[in-house]
Design brief:
By secondary structure, the chain is mainly alpha-helical. The protein has 2 helices and no strands. It is elongated.
Length: about 55
Amino acid sequence: MEAMLSPTDTPPPPVHVAIIMDGNGRWAKSRGLPRTAGHKRGAEAVRRTVEAARE
């Protein structure tokens, strides 16, 4: 049987979240692109993630 949580038992949302960006340069290199292209795509992905989290 599942335990039921009351609203007071729900932990607060996190205040800080870390995003570890690793592999963007390797991703680009594996596709024949310059590393900077991978860094740009990684930055775009983080931007989308942060915007979605703020909603």
